[in-house]
Write a structure and sequence with these properties.
alpha/beta, six-stranded parallel sheet, 42% helix, 13% strand
């Protein structure tokens, strides 16, 4: 049975985040440019809320809950699913934002559907998972310890400073709703995916944002990815693995500059 649910029209309401439990994220209504955001594995789309507030007046933000809403969680399938969501919500190219695993999905979408993108923002991500250590141990842990335990592990390393308790509990509640099969499929697919050779063919403008204090993905890998992309800028920021939550104003500045650079 399909797990896909109807999605709201971003132009019809102020709050347009697609996420667990029907919650919504603030965005500017009307004809402002649309940014579509893909969070990392086990991350509630609410992780983009602070950036959504910061972008008010500049663009609308639609964050997608791919771990709960997509029928298949392989990277290639998720790129096609994302392309479908973009077509459903916009008649114009959008800014696609990918965080962590969401960045791998975004890269795949950019490689296969450049006509849908105005620009690309890659946040603490990369074309492969070679810096992630023993990914197979993480995949096995989902079966032995459960998705909630894995979500706690991900949350512990996702922020330089932990979120307030109530917000952290909201993020953990999202993780509890993620089907184990979706989590295993996503991590297995990302482990087996290497998009390094695709980078030179991605011609859309790209902003690579990377938190300097990420305990998993080093800044050198992010800089190398930016160097391999034909039209990319690189933006180290004072954050851990989730700059859009930890320093939303810095990410807003990058995104607003990217919007100005791609204004038509």
């Amino acid at each position: 049975m399909s797990r896909r649910r109807p999605e709201p029209d971003p132009s019809a309401c102020e709050a347009v985040r697609r996420g667990h439990g029907g919650r919504r994220q603030r965005a500017t209504p009307g004809t402002a440019p649309l940014a579509v955001a893909l969070p990392g594995s086990f991350c509630d789309p609410a992780i983009f809320d602070r950036l959504g507030h910061a972008l008010a007046g500049h663009c609308r933000l639609l964050a997608l809950s791919w771990m709960t809403d997509a029928d298949s969680c392989g990277i290639a399938s998720l790129a096609e699913w994302t392309a479908g969501r973009i077509r459903a919500h916009s008649g114009e190219p959008v800014v696609l934002i990918g965080h962590s695993t969401g960045g791998a999905i975004a890269l795949q979408a950019a490689a296969h559907h450049p006509e849908l993108l105005r620009a690309l923002v890659l946040i603490n991500t990369g074309p492969h998972m070679r810096e992630h250590g023993d990914v197979d141990t993480l995949i096995d842990a989902i079966g032995t310890d459960g998705v909630e335990s894995m979500t706690r592990r991900v949350m512990r390393r996702s922020f330089q400073t932990p979120p307030p308790a109530a917000e952290l509990e909201r993020f953990l509640a999202y993780g509890r709703a993620v089907p184990a099969r979706s989590a295993v499929e996503a991590l297995t697919s990302q482990r087996d995916t290497d998009l390094t050779e695709a980078l030179p063919a991605i011609r859309v403008p790209v902003a690579v944002v990377h938190g300097r204090h990420d305990p998993v993905r080093g800044i050198a890998g992010a800089a190398a990815m930016a160097e391999a992309l034909p039209d990319a800028t690189f933006h180290p920021v004072d954050a851990g693995h989730s700059p859009m939550y930890e320093c939303p104003d810095a990410v807003r500045t990058v995104l607003v500059e990217l919007l100005a650079r791609t204004d038509r």
